[in-house]
Amino acid sequence: MGVTVRQKPKGSGVYWVFINHQGKRASKKIGTDEDVANQVANTIDAKLKLGQYEFEKPKSQAPKLKEYASIWLEDYIKPLRRQSTYERYSDILNRYVFPALGKKPIDKIKRGEIRNLLLNLYKKGLSRSMLCLVRDVISGPSPDVARN
Fold it and tell me: Residue 141: pLDDT band by 50, 70, 90 thresholds?
């Protein structure tokens, strides 16, 4: 547990309070007055000892692949591609991708997992062109498409 006051960058005259408590870290810019920064640090240290200080809530979690890909299908593929393309992509997602990766948040899916999915599909007898199509569908939903 620790609360420290430092200038950042060094010699700039701008004081920051750095908090390190139970593996969580935070920092706050205080200003140009060192005495105020020390008072804030003492207050935060007292709250930490009493268990009253709460760190900022973590950022919202990334959506699951199934939710994200569904938005991509409906908002991007359906209006901009042929109906047959939409149906084929939807079928590939439902048949091959969602059972393996659909419940994982998109920021937690690793390249190795996608590779293993494609290798397993290859072992099951899918053609090379179908594997390429599965890969392309997985690569399709880019982060800026589903953002509103």
Answer: low
